[in-house]
Amino acid sequence: MFISGIGIIFTRGRGIDCFENALTQGWIDPSWTDSFPAYRVTKETLSDTNLSKKIRRADKFSKMAALSAFDAYKDSGMTLNNNDEKLGIILSTAFGPHTTTFSFIDDILDYGDANVSPTKFSNSVHNAAASYISTMLDSRGPTITLADFSYPFQNALLLADSWLKEKRCNHVLCGCVDELSTVMEYACKIKLKAAEDGKIRPFMFSDFPVSVLGEGSVFFMLSEKRCKNNYAEVAEISFSWELKKNPDIIIIDADGMAGDETGYKNYSNKGLPITGYSPVFGSMMIGSAFNFAAACLIFKNQLVYRCPVSDNSSSVNSYFLTKEANVNEINCIRICGSEKISIINIKK
Amino acid sequence: MKAVISGIGAISAAGLNLQENLFSMKNGKRNAGPVSLFSTDLTYPVFEVKNFSEKTEMEGMRTFCLAVAAAKEALKDADLLPPLSGFKAGVCLGTTVASQLNDIDFYSAFRKYGKADLKPVERFLLGNLSKALAYLLKANGPSVTVVNACSSGTDAIGIGLSWLRTGICDMVIAGGADELNRVPLCGFGSLGILSKLLCAPFDKDRTGLNLGEGAGILILESEESYIKRGGKPLLYLSGYGTAADSYHLTAPHPEGKGLESAIKSALSDSCVSPMDICFVNAHGTGTNENDKVESTVLSRIFGENIRYFSTKGYTGHTLGGAGGIEAVFTAASLKYGWIPASAGFLSKGDEIPLSPVLLNTSINGSFALSTSLAFGGNNAAIVIEKV
User: Fold this and answer.
1) Number of A:B CB contacts under 8 A?
2) Beta carbons of B308 and B279 less than 8 angstroms apart
């Protein structure tokens, strides 16, 4: 399965070039609300005069998804036929459009059960975002929304791979989206440990790591055959502790969001170069998709971006300067609590 | 490649297990009534699962409890006992309610005081439907929850088929579940598509849908794995098709383009023609637009002699559970050789080209189709085969 396009929206803006700049730039201070740090996506990032008509009723969640999916499509350089039935869309999320859900509940509480907004209800349904994407691209192919707290991106990739192998689709737009809300921030304040200095530390390997919440969306155009614009190839998505041979780089999803991160230490002990880019985009259940995008850029540019935060108390073999490198294979690793771990094996 | 359906289980307002459901349908029982599960100003009739008690440790996780009840029945039918750790077993279930943190009491407290007991949040985080069932059954394969609105259950079954075909799993627990909940009740009410009367799918005087709750689960297995453990296949999931309307967030495409593509894709995936299909278990919600579009598409693809029906007159619209429940009913109809009368239907108007079946009807065929249309313009169809 080949990656031919990437679209991304995160705290520092929109587009793969913007993400590349952020990786080069490294860590920046998050925004702070009541001493609570978070990497938020601004309204300005979501304004798009060309696409605004098709997504005018969409909420923030759907807009982030629709714009990044559209950008992945554009980045791939493909031109789809009208009513294309061979383009699949897979959207995966941990929490869905919960801001709109709470806004809908506001209506119930304020105006009563019989006086709520149908538009809010429509947008509160998880698959509204995927529906906006299919309508925007005029795609009639398979369109699925998944919800998962542990491996939302990995499960989406697994399904995309199945669809391509079954010839159900020629191409799949596969991505993740999640948003912040006051409720979520409140719950995370209590359940997680916020980084007091605003810095996620991927190499803490702590059983109670620090986090800085993030939000955003990232989509990939995936194809069974190599396309003109090619970032890399997904060789395997597995759920096991074993590395695929010895990759050139390991990217870990450590961001303080999934609990105990001591398991990542097993990989640092192997002496292989390890990095992790969560301090650039924030802590998210869908963070794997952003690290996967970073891996794609490493392959394309043959440039390893420095780890955004230089704290290395665990003496990890990592990159603290951005430098050119000959990278042929990367393993993206996610450990979710005491559950099984996932490895995405990507090749040049 | 097709998958063996080695076990089926269902729970709905029509019954606490498959046989009770079939009994209700055979006898035309429609167990609807006012909402009793929560307080609401709305007076629409609903189909609640009665005499079903959640276990204490699962309090507040009604959708999960419904899924567990149907899964236990399906596993028993498949002659399987958890743990399933000896298999490459995946779990793929569809839902709508269980994927949303829509606890009104929690949110109301948070809004009022700026803080609230986080128990509902913890329950929500533990309650991802597929993950929770996989944990309970010790299924070690992939587990993912499909949230494709009303086609979630059918899509989950289709994903299960993909996992088997690509060798990711040798067994998949697939289907859907949803509880009756105040938030979607208000939401569907706001869309103006709930009926004050008992729903009447495809009838000329239909006035909308009734919400319901329940779960339907299929145990899907690779033929090799099933035969290896001594099974003799009777039912198969032959194929799955899905397509988007690319038209509107809440209304189906007026010509049913997406539904037509989904059905044709399911038939092609199953290597069968429309002539091979002996009946269609239609989505048939009882709303004006859904039934018009669906009946038109069925007539266009299958011609005027196709027998079709909706079971929502017995279960209500169970949203994310519907595709699972209706797949179970489709499999059971093939197995037992009869289809139920389409409850609520009396006569068709001009815009409905075909009448659904009016009476319980014997059938003698090998293939049947089950369809789902969803909010967001999703359409899905599966083909089930009896050998």
Assistant:
1) 193
2) yes
Q: Which domain holds residue A267?
A: 2-347
Q: How many domains does chain A divide into?
A: 1
Q: What is this model's ipTM?
A: 0.97
| DSSP H or E stretch at residue B226 | helix B223-228
B155/A134 Cβ within 8 A: no
Residue B280 vs residues A52, B11, B84, B372: alpha-carbon distances, Å:
40, 21, 33, 11
Sequence-distant (6+) residues with CB within 8 A of B375 are: A122, A125, A127, A131, B149, B150, B249, B250
Residue B56 confidence (pLDDT): 53
pLDDT tens column, A225-282: 998 899 999 999 998 777 667 899 999 999 999 989 999 998 888 889 999 999 999 9
A121 contacts in chain B (CB < 8 Å): 186-188, 190-191
Judge contact between B269 and B257, C-beta under 8 A: no
Contact B294, B281 (CB under 8 A): no
Q: What is the pTM of this model?
A: 0.97
Residue B366's CB is within 10 A of a number of other CB atoms, namely 15
- Tell me the sheet residues that pair with B216: B10, B176
Could B246 and A128 be called an inter-chain contact, meaning their C-beta atoms sit closer than 8 Å? no
Q: Are B291 and B202 in contact (CB under 8 A)?
A: yes
Residue of B96, B144, B162 with shortest CB distance to A163: B162
- A115: domain CATH number is 3.40.47.10
Q: Do B183 and A101 touch (CB under 8 A)?
A: yes
Note the CATH architecture for domain B3-386: 3-Layer(aba) Sandwich (3.40)
Domain ranges of chain B: 3-386
Contact between residue B126 and residue B132 where contact means Cβ atoms under 8 Å apart: yes
Chain-chain contact of A140 with B243 (C-beta, under 8 angstroms): yes
pLDDT category at A339 given cuts 50, 70, 90 is: low
In sign, the C-alpha dihedral spanning A239, A244, A246, A251 is: negative
pLDDT tens column, A21-61: 999 999 999 999 888 999 999 999 999 988 888 888 899 99
Q: What distance in Å separates residue A277's CA from the closest CA in chain B?
A: 25
